[in-house]
Amino acid sequence: MVVQENNFHEMAKCVTLGEGLGADAVLFSQLVDWGTMAAHELVRRQVHFPEHPRHAEFVEQLRDAALRHPIVDLGNLARLVPKN
Q: Angle at Cα 12 formed by Cα 8 and Cα 16, nearest 5°?
Protein backbone atom coordinates (compact mmCIF):
# COMPACT_ATOMS: atom_id res chain seq x y z
CA MET A 1 0.00 0.00 0.00
CA VAL A 2 1.39 3.37 -0.96
CA VAL A 3 0.57 5.51 2.06
CA GLN A 4 -0.53 9.05 1.39
CA GLU A 5 -2.74 11.81 2.77
CA ASN A 6 -5.96 10.34 1.40
CA ASN A 7 -5.51 6.77 2.72
CA PHE A 8 -3.22 6.62 5.78
CA HIS A 9 -6.21 6.10 8.05
CA GLU A 10 -6.87 2.79 6.23
CA MET A 11 -3.56 1.11 7.11
CA ALA A 12 -5.02 -1.08 9.87
CA LYS A 13 -7.87 -2.15 7.56
CA CYS A 14 -5.29 -3.13 4.96
CA VAL A 15 -3.59 -5.41 7.51
CA THR A 16 -6.92 -6.97 8.41
CA LEU A 17 -7.65 -7.56 4.73
CA GLY A 18 -4.23 -9.11 4.15
CA GLU A 19 -4.59 -11.35 7.16
CA GLY A 20 -8.05 -12.43 6.04
CA LEU A 21 -6.75 -13.30 2.58
CA GLY A 22 -3.87 -15.31 4.06
CA ALA A 23 -1.19 -12.93 2.79
CA ASP A 24 2.41 -13.61 3.76
CA ALA A 25 3.13 -9.88 3.93
CA VAL A 26 1.50 -6.48 3.83
CA LEU A 27 4.01 -3.90 2.64
CA PHE A 28 3.59 -0.18 3.23
CA SER A 29 5.56 2.50 1.42
CA GLN A 30 5.68 6.28 1.42
CA LEU A 31 4.59 8.15 -1.68
CA VAL A 32 7.65 9.01 -3.75
CA ASP A 33 8.09 11.25 -6.77
CA TRP A 34 8.00 9.20 -9.96
CA GLY A 35 7.19 12.25 -12.06
CA THR A 36 3.56 11.18 -12.48
CA MET A 37 1.83 14.10 -10.76
CA ALA A 38 2.25 17.82 -10.39
CA ALA A 39 4.70 18.91 -7.69
CA HIS A 40 2.00 20.70 -5.67
CA GLU A 41 -0.16 17.56 -5.68
CA LEU A 42 2.75 15.40 -4.57
CA VAL A 43 3.51 17.74 -1.65
CA ARG A 44 -0.18 17.78 -0.67
CA ARG A 45 -0.22 13.96 -0.47
CA GLN A 46 3.17 13.24 1.16
CA VAL A 47 1.90 12.92 4.71
CA HIS A 48 5.14 11.26 5.85
CA PHE A 49 6.96 14.60 5.82
CA PRO A 50 6.96 16.50 9.15
CA GLU A 51 5.89 19.70 7.34
CA HIS A 52 2.61 18.13 6.21
CA PRO A 53 -0.42 19.54 8.09
CA ARG A 54 -1.66 16.02 8.97
CA HIS A 55 1.73 14.49 9.78
CA ALA A 56 1.07 14.21 13.53
CA GLU A 57 -2.22 12.44 12.81
CA PHE A 58 -0.38 10.06 10.47
CA VAL A 59 2.31 9.30 13.07
CA GLU A 60 -0.43 8.56 15.59
CA GLN A 61 -1.86 5.98 13.15
CA LEU A 62 1.53 4.25 13.19
CA ARG A 63 0.85 3.42 16.86
CA ASP A 64 -2.07 1.15 15.88
CA ALA A 65 -1.56 -2.38 17.23
CA ALA A 66 -2.56 -3.83 13.84
CA LEU A 67 0.69 -2.49 12.40
CA ARG A 68 2.67 -4.74 14.75
CA HIS A 69 1.19 -7.88 13.16
CA PRO A 70 3.94 -10.27 11.96
CA ILE A 71 2.92 -9.90 8.30
CA VAL A 72 3.43 -6.11 8.35
CA ASP A 73 6.47 -4.57 6.69
CA LEU A 74 6.50 -0.80 7.15
CA GLY A 75 9.32 -0.43 4.63
CA ASN A 76 10.53 3.15 4.34
CA LEU A 77 7.94 4.27 6.91
CA ALA A 78 9.45 2.22 9.77
CA ARG A 79 11.71 5.08 10.83
CA LEU A 80 8.62 7.16 11.64
CA VAL A 81 7.11 4.74 14.18
CA PRO A 82 7.00 6.41 17.60
CA LYS A 83 9.42 4.79 20.05
CA ASN A 84 7.03 4.82 23.01
A: 140
